[in-house]
Amino acid sequence: xxxxxxxxxxxxxxxxxxxxxxxxxxxxxxxxxxxxxxxxxxxxxxxxxxxxxxxxxxxxxxxxxxxxxxxxxxxxxxxxxxxxxxxxxxxxxxxxxxxxxxxxxxxxxxxxxxxxxxxxxxxxxxxxxxxxxxxxxxxxxxxxxxxxxxxxxxxxxxxxxxxxxxxxxxxxxxxxxxxxxxxxxxxxxxxxxxxxxxxxxxxxxxxxxxxxxxxxxxxxxxxxxxxxxxxxxxxxxxxxxxxxxxxxxxxxxxxxxxxxxxxxxxxxxxxxxxxxxxxxxxxxxxxxxxxxxxxxxxxxxxxxxxxxxxxxxxxxxxxxxxxxxxxxxxxxxxxxxxxxxxxxxxxxxxxxx
Length: 353
Known about the structure:
mainly alpha; Methane Monooxygenase Hydroxylase, Chain G, domain 1; 2 domains; 15 helices; elongated; membrane; transmembrane; transmembrane helix
């Protein structure tokens, strides 16, 4: 009984913590739709202003984590769908075949304007809404009013992102921690596979390394987004220097993950061919996996790992040992750059006597 109560308590504690961390998003989603609706009703006099809050919500949800330029494209995509569809509906009326035609033309228009995938989605959603929701009798010029409402709602949503921004330093630190953890896990699995001559474990590490592409892509998008937030939001200007340093380090860690992919592939090939495995390579990988998790890792510790791997390969030289040592050295170089090492000093630091 006590265990069940404790589990329930932990559940509510974890969920409460998650809610507390997302307070900015809660405020944005609470304020933006209501403000967009009020502005459309009170400032522009639109009696059916449902597109304004909808556009604000879609901007804040679909565009979460995107760069401001992409957010603008999404807003434009929604407005294009509304404008094209409403102008057509005024001529042909509403119905199933009309909806099909409007959707087709909305997608074609978005593609013609070279809008990205999210913007195309917005155009389609907007077209569906305007075909299926009939304007009230006497509703003046629905094409213009709905187009204006879409732009207004999107603009309010974008303003909320800028005025109530996420903490870019915290966001990027969290992404860095996740990337370091994934890198460390792959290196540890690969090192253990080498130590135990375990082909299955090496294959598992390779599959995991190949699966990092989505994380790498997400990290790249996040780096662009937080840099832009720090540049656009006056509440984050003082964090710009810290954000730039962290995004630069993220790029280097991204390269380390990519190099780990190549490393895992070479290790798997080596073990499948039943080649002798020098113990020093497995030791280097195990040590490197520990250092990958250490944000305060010293330059000397990283350099020592690279030297040990290269010397081991020289003493047991084959194509695969040389390739594995070379990839370890490349990963160390990426981690050194992430730690702030001057690129011009890498060759001198990683040279082997």
